[in-house]
Design goal:
Blueprint: H1 6-20, E1 33-38, E2 43-47, H2 60-70, E3 76-82, H3 95-104, E4 112-116, E5 122-126, H4 127-130
Parallel strand pairs: 3-4
Antiparallel strand pairs: 1-2, 1-3, 4-5
This protein binds tetrahydrodeoxyuridine (THU).
């Protein structure tokens, strides 16, 4: 797994917790926050943003990553996610977010994804463990 200090893990979890307070989740009433440590050293945060047309919902993880990319940073060294549960484990990224994570994490084999509970306890896994065989770059078909 990528080298990340305990201090930085705590910092990212704190930022994700704070971002969670901004969640717009009137339909599910399930708030999520995320924080990505950009390879530029900046922390990019995000929350889930729901819509009356439910399928348009954007998860906290993708909000944070898209904010990072839109600011010109194309990869992250670590990502923390905080859901509503007391302990970790109930807000592991959804499938769509796992695909997006695989595109923008610094190294799929080592970049840590941290899933934290409200109590600060967390589980940490490399991105590859969450999504072993991502859809990556492709060649255009000529038919
Ligand atoms: N959600 C996230 O933001 N991240 C996750 O990892 C899981 C689910 C959001 C989407 C929706 O707004 C709500 O949680 C319930 O699914």
């Amino acid at each position: 797994m990528g080298v990340i200090s305990e201090e930085m893990i705590k910092e990212l979890i704190g930022c994700a917790k704070e971002a969670r307070l901004k969640a717009y989740a009137p339909y599910s009433k399930y708030k999520v926050g995320a924080a990505a440590l950009g390879s530029d050293g900046k922390i990019y945060t995000g929350c889930n943003i729901e819509n009356a047309s439910f399928g348009l919902t954007n998860c906290a993880e993708r909000t944070a990553i898209f904010k990072m990319v839109s600011e010109g940073c194309l990869s992250f060294k670590a990502l923390a996610v905080v859901g509503g549960g007391e302990g970790p484990g109930d807000s592991g990224p959804c499938g769509a977010c796992r695909q997006v994570i695989s595109e923008f994490c610094e190294d799929i084999n080592t970049t840590p994804i941290i899933d934290a509970g409200q109590n600060g306890e967390y589980v940490m896994e490399p991105a590859i463990a969450l999504y072993p065989r991502p859809f990556m770059k492709f060649e255009p078909n000529d038919d």
